[in-house]
Amino acid sequence: MLSVTVNGEEQDAPEAGRNLLSFLRFDLGLTGSKYGCGEGLCGACTVLVDGQPLRACMATVGSVVGGSITTIEGLAQDGDLHPVQQAFIDESAMQCGYCIPGFIMTAAGLLGRDASPSSAQIREALAENMCRCGTYMRIQRAVERASGQLGGSA
Amino acid sequence: MIEQAKNGGGLIIVGEVAMGFPPPRTSYARAAYGNTEPNTQSATWLRIGQDGSVTAYAGKVEYGQGIRSGLAMEVADELRLPLDAVEVVLGDTDRTPWDMGTFGSQSTARAGLQLRKAAATAREALLELAADHLDLPVADLTCANGQVASVQDSGHSVTYGDLLSEKTIERDLVEDIELTPESKFTVMGTDALRIDAIDQVTGKATYSQDIIVENMLYAAVLRRPSVDAKLLDLDTTAAEHMPGVQQVVRDNHLIAVLAETDEQAERSSATLQAQWEEQEDRSSQLDLPELLKKSGGDPFTVQEAGSLEEGFREADELLEATYYIPYVSTVPMEPRAAVARWDGDKLTVWAGTQRPFGLRTELAGRFEIDESNVRVIAPEIGGGFGSKSLYPTAHEAARLARVAGRPVRVAHTRGEEMQWGTVRPAALIEVKSGFKSDGTLVAWQFDAYHATNERPFIGRRGSDTPYTTPHVKVTTYSSQSPLRVGSYRSLGGAVNHFAREVHMDEIAEATGIDPVELRLRNLREPRFRRVLESAADAFGWEAKQPPSKRGVGVAIGLDVGSYIATCVELGVQGAEVRVERVTAALDCGLTVNPEGAKNQTEGGIVMGMGTALYEAVDFQAGTVLTAGFARYRVPRINNAPQIETVLVGDPETPSTGAGEPGIVPIAAAISNAVFDLTGKRQRELPIQRHLR
């Protein structure tokens, strides 16, 4: 039996070829990672594998065996929200909220690599994600806030 | 009567569900869906539990417009409570008052007002109870922070919970009750954080795509290759023998594989061998402009005054132009999904629809059961922008679950959503104007051909001109649509505004008058003048003769009773124009939730920017070619402008919608700015295609 680590817990996986997003959502019930396009183009399904953002809809369970997966449900530590999560609340960076877990995971991955990215680097990283409600300006501010450079230069 | 909402007793406020329906504006629902009749007269709007907890009920749904927070703010203020003390239950046909549907920006204007009255009624009832309890006259009492206290001695008090302990009291909502005046708001009008934000950022918010029920089967539905394709032959043998397949259902035109997992259903449906007969005369996008004009029927006079002939004769100058707006896709981030479960003759459906009560009526009719045996629950909705009023996915799930004898989940892929969801009607609009050399309008002829099929009302919205013109005739036509069309943010409002506001700019160009000044010369309505002057002022608009090469543009709009003016500034980025900066002034009357109104306006601007620059549904022979993000471009964060929204509504004016006005003038403002920058007029959308 294959097993993968999800949010710190070992989980049995049914088969190596199982789609990672389907595994997380339907087998584990972790529905915070969203299906948006199934083509890796919208970012709604973004999870972290060993800290790096990955489009779960484009991956199989077999491809992440041995890696540590973090989903939106596992981002808060000991009941404390991740700074990116808190910043999204503080900036009201949401409308329907469907894309928000993916944006937060992409941003958390970015800040994990580089604690103080420039505004342009933030825009570049987040351009992989889509928000149809158009809350981009707020999302940008939220990630700037989380990186401690609110109002920083581009 | 909604009994579920009463469980647990406490103070229950019961009121009418119809709220004066159907009012003129929402005749849209009657025309579109026919479900304007509630099946109950009254329902529970508000309950204060025996423990003092406050729950508000509304049949509206939350799909990003922030009404859960907005409605909670209204209730909190009337009950003198902090925002987080109010829970809002939405869109559940067993728990909430009947509602026609969440569209037309009516939530704050109607449901919100009803909840304010319910909460004010509850406050009065609590004061009466406290008068007995504290042995003081009502006049000497005041409500604050979940307590009723003596005005003289705030220590002499009782909590709402203590007043209602072990009691069950039902009161009728008082229609003419005195509401809290704006000067005493402590929650409304403030920039409060959303009450559902925590669930959104932790992944707890549950959408219809996320509904998983015990023993559920996953469906993959066989879709036609093109709009009118007919099935000739089907071989399901291979699919039936694939792992995990429970059965292949063929129920009339609905064919689906049901399997134990989503992937098993998808894989086996790919092995279905279907032969299709496709229609011969299937049109393509290139035929559309001609088809719109040729097939335009059902002329509807939206506005008429004076005589055009006379007007054109009086004019110093005439101008004629044709504008073309292609189909666009709504593209909510959440594709439609539904789960259906039968318990005997009782049906429960989870579906992210904008019309849970309408869907209940439809399902009861389809299965010939009483409406009381159907429960529709609309979970959080991952965007809709009008398109999720129609929800065929729920019908499919209910039909398949009936056949399978197990709960069934039907979820659109992105491709299915964009191939089989509806699109905003394309339109061809001809405008002929006559004006004096000082820019004063004397004649205005506006003929709009919208591909609305049987939904002509979509094309009428926003087609009338607000500019004072003695001789005017505005006519809309309903043209054939090769693709399935449906609602979209502002319906045809943004489409009609595009033609009108670009044409106004062409008059500014012809007369050499600054575009803001030209509009002011023709506008009498003070609310229009105020938004235009406010937007120009906040933007830092400098009057110049167009094209000024600065890349600035302006347009105004009126939608759902709200006035808006928008100024934009463009830059150039490689082979593209980039919208750098947008300033919008919005007058939606009393703004209950300023942060929400700004967020909505920004959203409308970004969405409208997509329609202006990038978006068009391409199709060939009845098949959508742009059914996926690889070929359908929508704005991303690196395209998004800086947006400033100025709220200029008069708090004494009743609230009107804020969800739709933002999109109405933006495409014209961008087109006008492209002209200002390049000197080339853009009468066809999307502009980016014509710049290359």
Overview of this structure, please?
The complex is a heterodimer of chains A (154) and B (692). Helices cover 32% and strands 14% of the residues of chain A. Chain A has 154 residues and is an alpha+beta fold. Chain A has two domains: 73 residues, Beta-grasp domain (Ubiquitin-like (UB roll)), CATH 3.10.20; 64 residues, [2Fe-2S]-binding domain (DNA polymerase, domain 1), CATH 1.10.150. A five-stranded mixed sheet of chain A has the order 2-1-5-3-4, with helices on one face. In chain A, helix 2 crosses helix 5. Chain A is globular, with a radius of gyration of 15 Å. Chain B has 692 residues and is α+β, with helices and mostly antiparallel strands. Chain B folds into three domains: 199 residues, Aldehyde Oxidoreductase, domain 4, CATH 3.30.365; 144 residues, 2-Layer Sandwich (Aldehyde Oxidoreductase, domain 4), CATH 3.30.365.10; 303 residues, Aldehyde Oxidoreductase, domain 4. A seven-stranded mixed sheet of chain B has the order 11-12-9-20-17-18-19, sandwiched between helices. The longest helix of chain B has 28 residues. The termini of chain B are far apart. Classes of the chains: A alpha+beta (154), B alpha+beta (692). Chains A and B meet through helix 1, helix 2, helix 3, helix 4 and helix 5 of A and helix 5 and helix 17 of B.
